[in-house]
Give the backbone structure.
Amino acid sequence: MPQFGSEEKARACEKLGATLGIDYRTQDFVEVIRAETQGYGIDITLDMVAGSYVQRNLEIAAVEGRVVTISLLGGARAEINMGMVLTKRLTLTGSTLRSRTVAQKAAVADAVRRNVWPLLAAGRVRPVIYATFPLAEASEAHRLMETSKHIGKIVLTV
């Protein structure tokens, strides 16, 4: 599985408003979350890893919590304890745009236009830009992205 985390990235998340950033390379996020929430857990987990993380996400889920998978960086297969899903009354779901129709994608884009763009225009939400590259240097931008050292977005300018 790709390694994206670091102590620096955990602290950057906190500066952006996260209650707690966890460097999963040096800390067991299940143990940290159990301690930080006094055993309550997490109401909603947005999972971009899947694979072996699915069971761990179920472990940290609060009763009636939701785990939403949106990417498969850790693999498409997972072994999970369905008893935990039942006893905690969890919702385990996934979403992707790839399999949606053009009309469905247009509806998502319209919702973003209505609900997110005003926040961007007002400056209430700002993207974190790490670096910009002219389109002609796209290969260099990809090299940087593959290092996973950046914190924020890498932008190609036209």
Q: What stands out?
A: The chain has a mean pLDDT of 94. The first strand starts at residue 42 and ends at 47.
